[in-house]
Specification:
It is built from 11 helices and no strands. It is mostly helical and 224 residues long. The protein folds into 2 domains: 63 residues, Orthogonal Bundle (Arc Repressor Mutant, subunit A); 114 residues, no CATH class. Helix 1 packs across helix 2, helix 3 crosses helix 4 and helix 5 runs antiparallel to helix 8. Keywords: DNA-binding.
Length: 224
């Protein structure tokens, strides 16, 4: 059995580009904070991310985060409410960074590359994102109904549908998009990695193959 892929540390904060402002995120909205409040929040999130990477999400407590960030426990509770709020804040931060990357980052993930290349890059990045935050995703992903209507998932789905349309794919794009989104579901990715023992490279190659088949690219690598 392959050992679980431990969560990576949070990426550094980045300014939200104008075109990405207002997008739904893990908390369903866009937070506005004073500079000092934002720095304090980031300090707590970075401490929590280190603990998740070292011990797994299931072992992270509010007390441990407070100790790692050298603040009082009350500070953590006031900022996030409870442990569930802290876990969702971790995911919100990571999803914001991911959305910035595929909406306004450099190609091939961001604008400027052909739609098929962007779709391939998006899937690879989404798989890596799922693996990096697997512990937190599995712990917070307990409600299937909420999972499929989550605002951040809707943004991903819209992005995939737009790229499919730009690539000339026709048919039931809504259903096709849902099928493609299923490739990034944390329970499935975790099963393939830890139970089936599939390496990350195989998952990424499988996504590229699925994209190729979906857009019916010929041997030359061009869409007919």
């Amino acid at each position: 059995m392959t050992p679980p892929f431990r969560s990576a540390q949070l990426p550094p904060p980045a300014p939200v580009p104008e075109r990405a402002q207002g997008l739904p995120m893990a908390d369903g909205g866009v937070a506005t904070e004073r500079a000092d409040a934002a720095r304090n929040r980031m300090r707590l999130l970075e401490a929590a991310a280190r603990l998740v990477a070292e011990h797994g999400a299931e072992h992270v407590t509010m007390e441990a985060v407070a100790c790692a960030a050298s603040v009082g426990k009350g500070t953590v509770f006031r900022r996030f409410g409870d442990r569930v709020g802290l876990m969702y804040a971790l995911l919100d931060h990571s999803e914001r960074a991911f959305q910035q990357a595929f909406l306004s980052g450099p190609p091939p993930l961001g604008p400027g590359a052909p739609p098929v290349e962007r779709l391939e890059a998006f899937g690879v990045a989404a798989i890596r994102h799922t693996l990096a935050y697997m512990d937190v995703l599995l712990e917070t992903d307990q409600d299937a109904n909420r999972r499929y209507s989550h605002p951040a998932r809707l943004v991903r789905g819209t992005h995939i549908a737009v790229l499919l349309r730009e690539a000339g794919v026709t048919g039931d794009l809504a259903l096709l998009t849902e099928n493609l989104l299923g490739c990034f579901e944390p329970p499935l990715v975790n099963h393939l990695r830890t139970v089936r023992g599939m390496p990350v490279e195989r998952l990424e190659a499988g996504w590229r193959d699925l994209v190729d088949r979906t857009v019916r690219r010929g041997p030359s690598g061009c869409c007919p």
